[in-house]
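S1.2 Input.
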Amino acid sequence: MVEAWYMDDSAEDQRKPHRCEPARPVSLDKLQQLGVFYWKLDADKYEDDPELEKIRKEKNYCWMDIITICKDKLPNYEEKIKMFYEEHLHLDDEIRYILDGSGYFDVRDKEDKWIRIFMEKGDMITLPAGIYHRFTLDETNYVKAMRLFVGEPVWTAYNRPADHFEIRGQYLQFLTQRA
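S1.3 Output.
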């Protein structure tokens, strides 16, 4: 099951867990209130998994690729790691399925506080369009992930501030309706 918590304010290495003291865990229900959805799947059979196919069909995730993030596999590794960790939003949902390794997605809550979501093999997550977020590896420095999209992939990230986008306003409206 996914593990999430409120982050501390430390400027220490981004790959560390950064748990608040005392701990402030975040439930799956709280993540869903933010529009973040999670599934636990069998990553060893991702090529032939009926559960994954069912989710892809229901959500219309028709495009996918696989990315490996580690020094040996990702061109411009250091630059990409910095880019992934910049706070940003997308105009489309971000869907990631961890096939191997681990890392963290950080998302902002309604009060603009960071929540860290630990992702490991078998975890699949959807971050809604318009949510401010970022990604980093953990101390293992390795993750292999499937990226899924509705339609053709759009890779554009809009760094904060990006409140002028219509999708950001729609996301904020979604949050107020959940209150």
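S1.4 Remarks. The mean pLDDT is 97.
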